[in-house]
Amino acid sequence: MDLTASPFPSPEEKRSVRAAKRDAVLRAAVQMFNARGFHQTSLDDVAASLGISKPTIYHYLGNKDQVLLECVKIGLGQLIAAAEDARTRPGTGADRLCAFLVRYAEINMDDFGRCVIRTGDEALMPESRERFRELKRRIDTDMRTLIIEGIADGSLAPCDPKLAAFTIAGALNWPARWHDPAGSESPEELARHMVDMLCRGFQPR
Q1: In a domain, 3, yes or no
Q2: Distances (CA, A) of 49 to 24, 30, 114, 119, 157
């Protein structure tokens, strides 16, 4: 027996446990927001699903607006990371765009990405709303940049990058509303099929 070992958790262990509890609250909240809608979900509902008290949620995340903001920030952060990863890939601009779009569609079929699509600006308080819009603008800019790079190297047909980005996003945002996680096709399979159809339409004939 090691008598020098402390029975108390280290600061790192405390941080890890806190992060795990915070993540569990966010996952429970985002699933309820997606299933019931933000306004139809209370923090009491979220707390009850985890067997904790509402003050515990306040301790880890704050009020309901802050919980929703954290949920959409996770989804938008995943999309930003996907765009950054795509831009480092080898190949043509079309290759990089299509790689990003596959991840974009996959993320939108997961809990946090689904929440981004299903959340209207009006659900958030003014300060949170502006942060939400800022991050969404970042995604739109990233997508347009990939399109512009593809046009520049000739791997994409000349087009209006803004209109192309809106069209693509519109097509790939909808699975957040109709995709059934219990369906026969996985998000990865659906994403590739949809992006294959879209990308064939963009490439020069």
Answers
A1: no
A2: 11, 12, 20, 22, 50
Say yes or no: 138 and 85 in one domain.
yes
Q: What's residue 183's pLDDT?
A: 77
Contact by Cβ (8 Å): 95, 89: yes
Q: What is the CATH number of the domain that holds 168?
A: 1.10.357.10
Q: Extract the tokens encoding 42.
A: 């209370």
Q: Work out the number of other CB atoms within 10 angstroms of the CB of residue 80.
A: 14
Contact 100, 86 (CB under 8 A): yes
Residue 144 and residue 46 share a domain: no
Domain-embedded: residue 1: no
Domain count, the chain: 2
Single out the residue of 47, 89, 42, 97 nearest to residue 64, CA to CA.
Answer: 42
Query: Would you state the structure tokens that stand for residue 127, as one six-digit string?
Result: 């300060």
Query: What pLDDT, in 10s, does the model give residues 21-69?
Result: 899 999 999 999 999 999 999 999 999 999 999 999 998 888 999 999 9
**Quick check: is 5 in a domain?**
no
What's the pTM value of the predicted model, to 2 decimals?
Answer: 0.85
Which range of residues forms the domain containing residue 141? 64-202
